[in-house]
Amino acid sequence: MKSDFEINREREKKIKIKMKIIEIPCLEDNYSYLIIDEKSGEAAVVDPVEPQKVLESAKLNGVQHLKLVLTTHHHWDHAGGNEKIGQLIPGIQIYGGSIDNVKACTHPLDNGNKLSLGVSINILALHTPCHTKGHISYYVNDDTTDEHHPPAVFTGDTLFVGGCGRFFEGTPQQMYQSLCVTLGSLPKPTRVYCGHEYTVKNLQFALTVEPENQKIVQKLSWAEQQRRANLPTVPSTIEEEFETNVFMRVDLPELQESVQCHTPIEALCEIRRLKDNWKG
């Protein structure tokens, strides 16, 4: 019998879309992404850390004009290709958080700023701090968005499939707001595209917190299959994350009890501490 995750992915492949998203594996475990408006041939790229790979993928996928760089945060493995891609494509617009000191940024962004791409794609900047102070996630939809053609969100190192980023520049309160309120308020079918391929390890850890959670067991099995076949585990969905990501499940009393905490933020802090020290 096919798992829910296999059925969801097969359904997505059958949908006729105007917005095409291409995963580009980079470095050891990073992802860059192309967001392509199929009607105009315009595209944006998220975190183009290896610009040559991005340009090759753009050519293969029929991109006519690579117009925007959407930088999630200032760390080198996300923003380190900005300067080079700016040299290769003069005039490309490079976006990043206004308080994040993003390399080669030409267009600073604040929470709620809106961009457009091509004739049908809308991009909303969401301030999702904690991993870095000015981290931006990008919520993207087009004029065909509905229950059968869900929107997407590019979450950098704030939300991973089954996990979240380290609290390098922020507080547990900020991460709770970013994960459970800002991202958690997006429509449940929203596809989640994160910055790294950490899914298998994240879900293995999640089972140490919630060993009886069969959704985690099922998704881990699927993720291991994907990786054995050298296939990505992105996208997830916001709904799947609420089912399988222990960092997004901290509002549940039973999860708080499992880590001997009494509030969501205490539980989030404790789970992050456990993950930071986990040797799995």
TrEMBL record:
Q: Under what name is this protein listed?
A: hydroxyacylglutathione hydrolase
Metal-binding in keyword set: yes
User: Which organism is this entry from?
Assistant: Kingdonia uniflora
Instruction: Report keywords, A-Z.
Output: Hydrolase, Metal-binding, Zinc
UniProt cofactor(s): Zn(2+); Fe(2+); Fe(3+)
Q: Which reaction does it catalyse?
A: an S-(2-hydroxyacyl)glutathione + H2O = a 2-hydroxy carboxylate + glutathione + H(+)
Which GO BP annotation is one of this protein's? methylglyoxal catabolic process to D-lactate via S-lactoyl-glutathione
- Enzyme nomenclature, EC number: 3.1.2.6
